[in-house]
Amino acid sequence: MVENFWKDKYPAGISADINPDEYRNIQAVLKQSCQRFADKPAFSNLGKTLTYGQLYELSGAFAAYLQQHTDLQPGDRIAVQLPNVLQYPVVVFGAIRAGLIVVNTNPLYTAREMEHQFNDSGAKALVCLANMAHLAQHVVPKTAVKHVIVTQVADLLPPLKRVLVNSVIKYVKKMVPPYHLPSAVKFNDVLSKGHGQPVREANPDANDVAVLQYTGGTTGVAKGAMLTHRNLIANMLQCKALMGSNLNEGCEILITPLPLYHIYAFTFHCMAMMLIGNHNILISNPRDLPAMVKELSKWKF
């Protein structure tokens, strides 16, 4: 292909080039954005909003727990098996700050699919929703996973609403099958133990792996694509350049119905929108249209 073939194909006002070495790693992007947009909303779900400042504080507590209360080391893999809830960005950015490699995992996986991905990735830790913990109970003993953190849907909501929502999900809707994971730690206990503790901020090279993103397995078993920090930073900058003036920094509200563990939403909503300080409204279950309409009715677009 002719070099720079696409340069004259971009619309006016959109740069044909980016500098993927503008940042050393995702940590550098996160720190800059959370300082620059500290008081701006970052993620909302079920009526609760985390600002960028709060995201940095909570992800720091999660990172501190991983460093001080587990034997996990930089480069170890942590499987994140969560839908679109506020815990997802806290866990992902906290794990990255601790130097771990994130393994995005579909919460709708069967036990067989979980076992394959955990073993293939070499995951040593798992963060999962209580709704799926009954599957983890059977899968974890067959893998190298040593640390399990379990969260409930409403764990980051205000106390009264947290108890109410989690109780309805568990006892009224009966969406949490019984499970037995005696060594598992509750997500809120993790944040409590890590709160206020120092974080040894990881500083990986640009070409170090940040995420293992698995395919859907349509051509055989799912395969993990190795995404480096530089890969993801390039994607962030590409999104920013291509959106041009259509997305202003620090003031846009974006609806996020696609799951963050999927590569599209992960790249655009979780990473690129973090770079420019915009606000994602997380839709936990887009199939529940009445609930989604109710969630969106709280915001002015």
Describe the 3D structure:
By secondary structure, this protein is of the alpha/beta class. It has one domain (7-296): 3-Layer(aba) Sandwich (Rossmann fold), CATH 3.40.50.980. Helix content is 39%, strand content 17%. It is built from 10 helices and 11 strands. The chain has helices at 26-36, 52-69, 87-97, 111-121, 133-139, 159-172, 187-194, 229-243, 263-275, 289-296, and strands at residues 41-45, 48-51, 77-81, 101-104, 123-129, 147-151, 185-186, 209-214, 224-228, 253-256, 279-282. A 7-stranded mixed beta sheet has the order 7-6-5-3-4-8-9. Strands 2-1-11-10 form a 4-stranded mixed beta sheet. A hairpin with a 2-residue loop joins strand 1 (41-45) and strand 2 (48-51). Helix 1 crosses helix 2, helix 2 (52-69) packs across helix 7 and helix 8 (229-243) packs across helix 9. The chain is globular, with a radius of gyration of 19 Å. The N and C termini lie far apart (43 Å).
Instruction: Please state the second-level CATH architecture.
Output: 3-Layer(aba) Sandwich
Q: Major sheet: size, sense and barrel closure? A: 7 strands, mixed
* N-to-C order of helices and strands: HEEHEHEHEHEHEHEEHEHEH
Spatial arrangement of strands, main beta sheet: 7-6-5-3-4-8-9
Say how many strands there are.
11
Number of structural units classed as domains: 1
Summed up, the helix count is 10
Helix content: 25-40%
Brief write-up:
This protein is of the alpha/beta class and 301 residues long. The protein has 10 helices and 11 strands.
